[in-house]
Amino acid sequence: MTAYPAWTPASRPGIIPLHPLSFGTILGRSFAALRQNPRVLLGFALLVQTVGYLVVLAAVGGIAIASFSRLDTVRPGTEEFDQITAGSVAITLVAGLVLGLAAGALGVIVQGIVVTEVSHAAVAEKLSLGALWRQVRPVALRLIGYAFLVALAVLAVIAIVVALLFAIGMAAPPAAIGLAVLVFFAALPLSLWLSTKLLLAPAAIIIERATIRAAVVRAWTLVRGRFWSTLGIIVVISLVFGAVAQVVTLPFSFLSAGLSSIIAPTGAPDAAAVIGMIVTLLLAQAVTLLIQSVAVVVQSTTTAIVYIDCRMRREGLDLDLLSYVEKRDAGTADLPDPYLVGIGRLAAPRFLAPYGAPPHPGVPPYPAASHGAPPRYAPPPTAPHVAPPAAPPSVPPYAGGPGVPPAPPHATQWAAPGAAPDDRGASAS
C-alpha cells in the first residue's frame, strides 16, 4: 500500500508579497493596509487621538483658568499682578508640555498596535485588539521610554542651541541672527538624517523585544544600504498628509467667514465669535483628528513594512516567513515566531546573474542566442564523446575501386533472385 501526500491549498497571501519590495510597493501597501483591519487600525487610532486631545484640552484649559483667575484678586499694574501673570503663564506652559508628552505616549501605544498588526498581516493573520495588546504590553513601557528619551534629547538640544544664541545675541545681535539662520537650515537635513536612521528602532522593540540600546543599533544596521529609499518614503508620506491637511482645512476657513457674514452682516463680534468657534474649532478639529489618525496608522504601517523589507534583503526574512506560512497552512502547530528565527543573520545577497554567466560552479554558461534572448533551458554537462573503433567492413568493396583487383571476366554484376552460382556462370557463357 502506497501512501500519497495529502493535497493542501495554496498559502493565503498577506498584505505584502514575501520578497524584497520596491519603492512603489512599500508606498502603496502602506495605504492599502487600512483595508486589512480598519476597526483595529483606524478605529483604535481615532479613539485614542480623540480621547487624548480632549483630555489635554480640558486639563490645560482648567489649569489656565484656575491660575489666571487669581489675577482678579489683585490690582493691575502692581508688582504682584506681574508676578502672578508670569507664574500663571509658566504653570500653563509646563502643564501643556507634560500633558502633551502623555498624549504622545498614547500615540506610541497606537504605533505599537499598528506595527504588531502589520507583522501578522504580512503572513495573512488577523488578530483582535485584545490579542494585539497582549503582545504589545510586555514592551509598552520600553517603547514609551524610547519615545521620552528621543523627546528629551530633542528638547535638550533645542535648549542648548537657544541658550547659545541668546548669549551670542547679548554680545553681537547681527552675528546671532546670522547664526540662527544657519542653525535653522542645518537642522532640517540633520533631523531627516536622524529620523531615517532611527526609523526602525520602535519596530525592533515591538517585534524583536529588543532593549532600547539594541533597538537603536538594529535600526542603524538595517537601514544601511536602504537610506535613500527610506528617506524618500518618509518625505513623500509627510508631504502627502501635509497637503491633505491644508486642502481639507482650507474650506472650513471660507465656510466660517461665509457663515459669519450671513448670520452677522453688521459685524457683531459675539455672533461672529460663536460661529467661528463652532465651525472652525469643532468641525475643523474633528477633521484634523481624523487626518492625524490616518497619518499615524500609515506612518506606523510604513515603518513595519520598511522593517520587513530591510530584513528580507539583509537576513533572508522572506524565506522564514514563507516556511512559516507553508507549515501553518499544512496544519503544523506550535510554530516559533518567524521574526525571531534569523535575527542578526547575514544572508547571501540575492541578485540576477548577468546574461551568459554560469549560474552554478562547474556548469558552463548559456550560449548567447542570436536574437538576444536567453534559452529556456540548458542541457546538463556530459562527458566528451569518444568515437568507437571502426569495424571491418562486412561487405566487399565495389569492383574497380582503388586498390581492388578487377572482377574476372565471367563474373556478372547481377543475378536473378534465387539462382545458384553455377547457373549464373552457365547463363553468362
Walk me through the structure.
By secondary structure, the protein is an all-alpha fold. The chain has helices spanning 23-32, 38-68, 79-121, 129-136, 140-171, 173-197, 201-208, 212-222, 227-263, 269-315, 317-329, 421-428.
Main pleated-sheet profile: none
Q: Would you report the number of β strands?
A: 0
Q: What spatial form do the alpha-carbon principal axes imply? A: globular
Q: What's the rounded overall pLDDT mean? A: 75
**Helical content class:** 55-70%
Order of helices and strands: HHHHHHHHHHHH
Distance between the termini: 79 Å
Low-confidence stretches: 352-378, 397-401, 410-429
- Using only C-alpha atoms, the radius of gyration works out to 40 Å
* Number of helical elements: 12
Summing up helix and strand content along with how strands pair, one would put the structural category as mainly alpha
Strand content: under 5%
Which short descriptors sum up this protein?
429 residues; mainly alpha; disordered C terminus
Task: Record the SSE blueprint.
Elements: H1 23-32, H2 38-68, H3 79-121, H4 129-136, H5 140-171, H6 173-197, H7 201-208, H8 212-222, H9 227-263, H10 269-315, H11 317-329, H12 421-428
Helix pairs in contact: 1-10, 2-3, 2-10, 3-4, 3-5, 3-7, 3-10, 5-6, 6-9, 7-8, 9-10
Summarize the structure.
It contains 12 helices and no strands. The chain has helices at 23-32, 38-68, 79-121, 129-136, 140-171, 173-197, 201-208, 212-222, 227-263, 269-315, 317-329, 421-428. 19% of the residues are buried.
